[in-house]
Amino acid sequence: MKRIAFKTLGCRLNQYETDALASQFSGQGYQVVNFDDEADVVVVNTCTVTNQSDKKSNQTIRQAAARHPGALLVVAGCMVNNHREKLENKFNRVTWFVDNKHKSAIFNLVDGYFKGEITHPEDFEGGLFDFEAAKKTFHTRSWIKIQDGCNNFCTYCIIPKVRGRAVSRPLTEVLENIRQVVDFGYKEVVLTGVNIGRYEESGTRFEDLVEKILALPGDFRLRIGSIEPEGFGDKLFDLFAHPKLTPHLHLCIQSGSDRILKLMHRMYTVNDFVQTVDKIRGRYPDFNFTTDVIVGFPGETEADFRETVDVVRQLNFGHVHTFKFSLRSGTRAEKLPGRIPENIKTQRSEILHRTASDEKRKYRLKMVGKPQTVLIEKTRSGMAYGYGEHYLPVRFSHDVDSVNRFVTVKLTALDEDDDPVFTGTIQDNEG
């Protein structure tokens, strides 16, 4: 039995693709092992969204080569699309560099090699949606890829270059993928892509897709992955009344300043964003919004930054991912004046982090005493850990090994950590 290890960097889309590949290898008789264990094949699924991502990807490739000197080494993903020539010159130990278009062909590439075939990634048709439904993954949830690429061309973003223009997965394939993973036993399905709100295929828009998924039979719940604040409206708001659709959105705001949003070439205003939040919370008061914010974008003044801090306070996000602006070569932001010194970006990041942490605690304190349907992800030493429908982390006493089961838990307290976790007590086991 050949052994294969995976290392994934970056977004949920990469995680979905790694899960699908790992499941395919496992189903064909390969043993999937940890990255640090001895392996015959190592696949590094790279990210290139920031300079830091490039550094991590380079470091991981070096680690893979050093730890597995006799293994086939496959480097795949966005960094290959963005820096293939540099990678080929730097890492002569790598067996194959595989771009996003051909990533789904990695199994055929590797398996063919062990059967004596001499092949190259471009010898295979490949395709953005040619991944098998993942039966065995690294996660309790099942990620479902519905879309790839983006047409927005935000000035700071390199994704359209490495993932291409927006393309939507055929509706029949999405629904069949979900039917399969539900049959495999997955209880939570998460929609992922680069810009999923812009899904459109043969007249079916994103909201229509969500409606059709909710109509599928089976004991599962649906979570919407990271989404831009555009491309959907009141129909989606109505759908959150469905018991299968979780009351949580990771809705990316990036800045609380309209001037900065315009420089970023974002497709909405702060008021548009606030109205969306208000509309949904007007109907579902406990709805959890999480978001991304970039600090230190070129030209960001102290007043612009303060507007962002004010919006974070106003909207009481359940969590804010804060990123210091990272200049990417080849983006329009590279040519913008007014670059912010690194120490100022760090100061602003720390201020926003403190503000966001305060708001997270305020939001979570409002949920104490309320029930959550928790999907158990792991058990250890008499404790169970998982997430409720509002994407709230919960731990509670539980002696039964019941991973991947729904349990109704009353939230009883919140710990004092920077990223506070709920403790709770079981009310009713739903099976």
SSE blueprint:
Blueprint: E1 3-8, H1 12-27, E2 31-33, E3 41-46, H2 51-67, E4 72-77, H3 78-90, E5 96-98, H4 106-114, E6 142-145, E7 147-148, H5 159-163, E8 167-168, H6 171-184, E9 188-192, E10 200-201, E11 204-205, H7 206-214, E12 221-224, H8 234-239, E13 248-250, H9 258-264, H10 270-283, E14 288-295, H11 302-315, E15 319-324, H12 342-367, E16 371-380, E17 383-387, E18 393-397, E19 406-414, E20 422-429
Parallel strand pairs: 1-2, 1-3, 3-4, 4-5, 6-9, 9-12, 13-14, 14-15, 18-20
Antiparallel strand pairs: 7-8, 10-11, 16-17, 16-19, 17-18, 19-20
Helix pairs in contact: 11-12
Can you describe what's shown?
By secondary structure, this protein is of the alpha/beta class. The chain has three domains: 3-123, Rossmann fold (3-Layer(aba) Sandwich); 142-367, pyruvate-formate lyase- activating enzyme (Alpha-Beta Horseshoe), CATH 3.80.30; 371-429, Beta Barrel (OB fold (Dihydrolipoamide Acetyltransferase, E2P)), CATH 2.40.50. The protein has helices at 12-27, 51-67, 78-90, 106-114, 159-163, 171-184, 206-214, 234-239, 258-264, 270-283, 302-315, 342-367; strands spanning 3-8, 31-33, 41-46, 72-77, 96-98, 142-145, 147-148, 167-168, 188-192, 200-201, 204-205, 221-224, 248-250, 288-295, 319-324, 371-380, 383-387, 393-397, 406-414, 422-429. Strands 2-1-3-4-5 form a five-stranded parallel β-sheet, sandwiched between helices. α1 (12-27) links the parallel β1 and β2 (31-33). α11 (302-315) runs parallel beside α12. The chain is globular, with a radius of gyration of 22 Å. The mean pLDDT is 93.
